[in-house]
Amino acid sequence: MLKLSGLTKEEVNEISKQIADSFFDYEYNSEDAGLLQYISTRENMFVYMNAIVTAAYNAGLLYTTSEKHEGYLMLSGDGVGSVGFSDGMKMISAEKKALGGFSNMKRFVKACFSEGGTIESRMRKAKRKFIRIEMLVVRKEFQKKGFMKQMLDYTYKLAESRNVPVILDTDDKDKASRYQHLGMQLDRIRTCDEQFRMYDLIKEVK
């Protein structure tokens, strides 16, 4: 895995576009509509993802599989780092714009934290350390070639070296199944909104 550095703004924007397109073009299963029911245009998906990618890059939290950039990984948590305050505020502003205003953002945030909160909030409440997968994306043309496993294995080894679990949440049952197939366990399913469920997953320390 390569930690991304030395990129121009245009290169960061191109990565953001690749990630936004991957999310926008994803075909959800029949039970889930996920993020797309809140962000309905490709342009707004780019606005949303560009803020996240820029913040992750600036904080040194953004990785890629190789020089070919087949996939991207954003991590946070114990010994990894976190997004800075300024970039965090920019993310909130971009989220509000992408979601179509404050009221829609409020509805989205409320949904995301429903039914007892995210797995991250519950881990923090229990005062447990962790590494969180904030984002894992394999570009469409490189899918089903082992890159998802490569990124997960890297994260697992990093977590093992710190003796902490890996956590993540995802908005689609099929995505959750793939993570389970590659070593994660389903912690819980939260019904957040109509056709919007969050699947909380964890890989405990061996």
Total beta strand runs: 7
- Radius of gyration from CA coordinates: 16 Å
Low-pLDDT windows of residues? none
The overall average pLDDT, rounded, is 93
Task: Report the sheet with the most strands, covering strand number, pairing sense and barrel closure.
Answer: 7 strands, mixed
Distance between the termini: 23 Å
Oligomeric grouping of the chains: single chain
Walk across the major sheet and give the strand order: 1-2-3-4-5-7-6
The helix tally amounts to 7
CATH 4th-level superfamily = Gcn5-related N-acetyltransferase (GNAT)
* Category from helices, strands and their pairing: alpha+beta
Q: Classify the fold: give the CATH topology.
A: Aminopeptidase
The helix fraction, in percent, is 40-55%
Structural domain count? 1
- Taken in chain order, the helices and strands follow as EHHEEHHHEHEHEE
Return the CATH class. Answer: Alpha Beta
Q: Based on Cα principal axes, name the global outline.
A: globular
CATH architecture type: 3-Layer(aba) Sandwich
Strand content: 15-25%
Structural overview:
With 206 residues, the protein is an alpha+beta fold. It has one domain (2-203): Gcn5-related N-acetyltransferase (GNAT) (Aminopeptidase). Helix content is 44%, strand content 20%. The chain contains seven helices and seven strands; from the N terminus they run E-H-H-E-E-H-H-H-E-H-E-H-E-E. The chain has helices spanning 9-24, 42-58, 85-99, 102-112, 119-125, 147-162, 173-181, and strands at 2-3, 62-64, 71-77, 131-138, 166-170, 185-193, 196-203. Strands 1-2-3-4-5-7-6 form a seven-stranded mixed β-sheet, with helices on both faces. Strand 2 (62-64) and strand 3 (71-77) form a beta hairpin. The longest helix has 17 residues, at 42-58. The protein is globular, with a radius of gyration of 16 Å. The model has no long low-confidence stretch (mean pLDDT 93).
